[in-house]
Every structure is written in structure tokens, then in C-alpha cells.
Design the sequence.
């Protein structure tokens, strides 16, 4: 019985540690050496840092500065790559070059952070053990103890240090590759392995030192630039100008975040950078359509809803191939969506679908939310205005010359007309609704709210401008001016409708949808 129990225990230990396995050795040109990753590992790019908006006002114009947690900016700068596997094991590699700068504020601008990072006082002295240990402690964000120096892979590595910590499933190593000839000295690197459910740390360490540290090697000079790295997908045609602001910090940070993953690629166009791991024809076709059409739609956004700021932002779109990865990134609360604008991260995140046209509808919708957030200095807009215009652009089209047409919604238009009396009665409550109130209710109730918001945006942009002797054509401009001053969307709505007789407005709205749609179809507010 004891023998059987011992065999069972040994098998259990082996099974627990067998969950961490390694794939073939690959070269990583941007890192500088070769190593094996976790078997069947998935790349885990560092998200864009969470932005905190700091606003000032100059009359009707807003001035916005984004500031960030210094640690997030630092980690994104120092982290080379992260991976995870199906068992939940995680591998992270960082380059030890700069310590985390100290600031007297919780949030700092990118400019201030970059100045501090380049200061000589914040450079890690690779010859000082204390500097390396301080960096490692900051990077792993967990208490570590005095490192143990070990002799491993002496042909490739000058020195290897192991950092004990309290975690029973985590290994922390720092190492420095050996310089070749008269080449420049290598930086120190840190690698962490966090195993899922493994308790035998000794066995985990033994396997890691043999199968990872022992496999680190340097590429030959002829193949040093070849290996795992992200590629750029470009649709720029002969004679076309390159995209704007090539060194905008969002572009630079986005490229760096995926540079060491051969399963990820990026595409750029005016106003946008797109990151994606899709490898299907549908997904890549969507990216090409985004590159071709989104600059034109962005100009249309600006025409219909002029910005309140002078900042020219670069918008980031992230497209995941699998829904599981999408949900993992956006969180369970957004699991029901196919795309979502994440204002804190300044990212429009999408999941690849089977229907290309439906994906483009989602992109045009969410990209308007993205634009409006930037255009209004990250001051939230009222749901009726924000969702209404996002729906307005779902069915918009752009031809090869960049001309955008605003078309009726084939689903929301009949829903609105068939329920026009209910829609008219709903208008005052819709104008007063906050976001929880707008999104609550049954599916049919939400569908009607979206239809009314779409109908309201369509009417204010294409119907009201054709009417005589009504104040309705100035509602959107009055709303924007009030929002710039008050920075509160409910107050801005009240002020924009202060001179509006709601009974007359409701009647005009009803009459437009029942009798005057034909004239609006011929009117193009983008030509005005």
C-alpha cells in the first residue's frame, strides 16, 4: 500500500510539472538572442497604458493632456515580450536598462516621463549588482531576496542570477549574454516563469534551467536579423503619400508592444494604426478596408461633429482572431460585444467575425465613439448624441475617391417608422437618459432606443437643416458649445434644448419620418 501511494505521489508530481513544456529555439532579432518559448504559447502584448485626462479650457476650445501611471509607461518600455499557454503558465522577458523614475505626482505626461527616463541618474549600471536587483524587484512587482549566482550555459551567458521570492510557483532569473569579439556589451535581461498549479519549485527550477536557460544561444551574424518579429502590412500604392505623424507616441508604443511576436502584425494609415493577430483572408480583408476607408470616415466625423480640441490624435485599433482572446482582453462584462471602444486604454478592440460587412459596421460604429472621445477632450457625450451618430455611420459608405454617403439604416428605419408614436413619446426621456438608463431594458426596448437615437441624429443632420424658421438646426452646435463650457452632458443637453418647444420638436420629428424623408435622402450635409 505504501509503495502504491509513493508511486501515485511521484506520478502526481511529474504530472504537475509536465504542464510546463517548451517549444523549439527561435531567434528574436529585436531582443538579440535565441531561446525556446512555452509550447504552443500565445503572445500576450502589453496593453496601451491607461490614460488619465487633464483638461483646461480656452473659451469654447478644450485643451487635453493625457497623463499616465509612471510604472505602466516604464513596464511597457522595459518589457520585451510576454507569453502564456493553455495551462495558464506565463513567461515574461524584460531588458534591464533604466530604473523606474521617481515623480512627485501620481500621473505624468509621456514627454515628462521620457525626459526622466533618459536622465543618466535613471540608467542601470550593469556592473552594480544593487542596480540590477533593484530593477528586477520593480519589474516583477513582488518582494525578492539576495540573488544566487549560478553557472549555467557558460558558452553563451557571462553570468546568471536566481532571485528567490515568496511565490511557490514563480522563478525569477537575470542573465547577461556573453559579448562576442569587439561587439558592444549586452544588456542584462530578466526572465520570469510563473507556473499554474505547480508546487514542486525545485523540479520546476531544474527543468527551466535545463530547457530554457541552457538553450539560450546567440544567432550567427548572417541570421541575426532573421526570426520572430511582427511584420507591417501595407496597402500604400505607388505614388500615394505615407501616413501622417509616423513618430506619434501611440504609433511608436503600439509597434513596440508587438515587435517580438511573429503571430502579430500591424498596418498604418492616416489617423490610425491597427494591431492584429488574424491570419485569415476575411480578417486581412477587413484590415485593408479599414486602411482604405477609415481616413475618409474620419473626415466625415469631423465635418458632422467638429472637434472641440486642436490635438491630432492617432487612433489605435486592435483586432483579435479568436473571441476567447478578445474576451480575455476586454473583460467578461464586454463578452457579449463584437467590438468596444476602451477610452481608458485609448483602444478600439474588435473580435474577428465571419461576416465582413457586419464587422465593418461595428468598426464604423465604434470608431465614431473613438473619434468623439478624442474630439470632445474625453468629456463624455450624451448617449442620444454619441450612440445616435455612431449608429448613423454604421451604414455609411465611402467610394474609391473618399466620398462618404450617409444612408438610411435598413433595420432601424422601419423599426422607427412602425413605432413612430411610441418613438415620439420616448424622445424627452431619451434626451435625459444617462448611459445606464439608455442600455437597460429588454432587447426590444434597447433596439427601439437605438433606433430613436439613430433617427434623431439622422433628423438633426439631414432633416432639420432643410427646415425654415425653426431653431432645431443649431441644436448640435449649441450642445457642443455648452459641453465645452460645462463638461457635463446632461447640462449641455438642457442648454441646447432650452429654447426648443418640445411639443413642436416632437411633431416635426414625427412629420419628418412620415412625410419628408425623400428630401433628406437627396441632402448631403458633408457637402455643406
Sequence:
Amino acid at each position: 500500500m505504501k509503495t502504491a501511494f509513493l508511486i501515485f505521489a511521484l506520478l502526481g508530481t511529474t504530472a504537475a510539472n509536465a504542464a510546463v513544456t517548451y517549444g523549439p529555439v527561435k531567434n528574436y532579432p529585436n531582443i538579440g538572442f535565441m531561446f525556446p518559448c512555452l509550447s504552443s504559447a500565445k503572445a500576450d502584448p502589453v496593453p496601451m497604458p491607461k490614460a488619465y485626462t487633464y483638461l483646461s479650457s480656452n473659451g469654447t476650445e478644450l485643451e487635453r493632456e493625457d497623463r499616465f501611471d509612471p510604472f505602466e509607461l516604464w513596464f511597457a518600455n522595459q518589457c520585451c515580450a510576454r507569453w502564456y499557454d493553455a495551462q495558464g503558465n506565463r513567461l515574461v522577458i524584460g531588458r534591464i536598462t533604466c530604473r523606474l523614475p521617481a515623480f512627485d505626482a501620481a500621473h505624468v505626461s509621456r514627454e515628462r516621463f521620457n525626459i526622466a527616463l533618459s536622465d543618466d541618474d535613471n540608467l542601470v549600471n550593469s556592473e552594480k549588482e544593487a542596480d540590477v536587483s533593484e530593477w528586477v524587484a520593480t519589474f516583477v512587482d513582488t518582494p525578492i531576496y539576495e540573488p544566487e549566482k549560478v553557472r549555467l550555459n557558460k558558452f553563451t551567458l557571462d553570468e546568471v542570477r536566481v532571485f528567490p521570492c515568496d511565490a511557490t510557483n514563480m522563478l525569477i532569473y537575470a542573465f547577461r549574454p556573453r559579448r562576442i569579439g569587439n561587439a558592444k556589451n549586452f544588456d542584462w535581461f530578466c526572465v520570469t516563469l510563473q507556473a499554474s498549479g505547480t508546487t514542486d519549485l525545485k523540479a520546476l527550477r531544474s527543468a527551466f534551467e535545463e530547457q530554457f536557460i541552457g538553450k539560450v544561444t546567440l544567432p550567427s551574424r548572417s541570421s541575426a536579423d532573421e526570426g520572430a518579429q511582427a511584420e507591417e502590412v501595407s496597402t500604400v500604392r505607388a505614388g500615394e503619400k505615407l501616413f501622417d505623424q509616423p513618430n506619434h507616441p501611440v504609433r511608436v508604443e503600439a509597434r513596440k508592444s508587438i515587435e517580438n511576436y511573429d503571430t502579430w502584425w500591424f498596418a498604418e494609415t492616416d489617423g490610425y494604426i491597427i494591431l492584429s493577430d488574424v491570419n485569415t483572408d476575411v480578417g486581412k480583408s477587413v484590415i485593408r478596408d479599414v486602411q482604405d476607408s477609415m481616413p475618409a470616415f474620419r473626415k466625415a466625423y469631423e465635418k458632422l461633429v467638429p472637434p472641440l480640441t486642436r490635438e491630432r490624435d492617432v487612433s489605435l485599433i486592435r483586432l483579435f482572431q479568436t473571441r476567447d482572446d478578445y474576451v480575455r482582453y476586454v473583460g467578461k462584462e464586454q463578452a457579449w460585444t463584437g467590438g468596444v471602444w476602451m477610452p481608458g486604454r485609448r483602444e478600439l478592440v474588435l473580435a474577428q467575425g465571419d461576416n465582413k460587412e457586419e464587422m465593418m459596421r461595428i468598426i464604423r460604429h465604434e470608431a465614431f465613439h473613438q473619434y468623439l472621445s478624442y474630439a470632445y477632450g474625453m468629456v463624455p457625450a450624451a448617449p442620444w448624441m454619441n450612440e445616435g451618430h455612431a449608429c448613423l455611420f454604421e451604414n455609411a459608405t465611402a467610394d474609391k475617391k473618399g466620398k462618404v454617403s450617409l444612408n438610411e439604416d435598413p433595420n432601424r428605419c422601419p423599426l422607427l417608422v412602425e413605432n413612430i408614436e411610441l418613438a415620439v413619446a420616448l424622445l424627452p426621456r431619451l434626451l435625459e437618459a444617462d448611459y445606464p438608463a439608455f442600455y437597460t431594458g429588454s432587447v426590444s426596448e434597447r433596439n427601439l432606443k437605438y433606433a430613436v437615437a439613430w433617427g434623431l441624429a439622422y433628423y438633426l443632420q439631414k432633416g432639420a437643416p432643410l427646415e425654415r424658421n425653426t431653431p432645431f438646426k443649431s441644436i448640435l452646435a449649441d450642445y457642443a458649445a455648452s459641453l465645452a463650457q460645462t463638461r457635463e452632458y446632461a447640462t449641455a443637453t438642457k442648454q441646447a434644448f432650452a429654447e426648443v418647444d418640445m411639443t413642436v420638436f416632437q411633431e416635426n420629428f414625427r412629420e419628418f419620418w412620415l412625410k419628408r424623408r425623400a428630401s433628406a435622402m437627396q441632402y448631403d450635409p458633408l457637402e455643406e
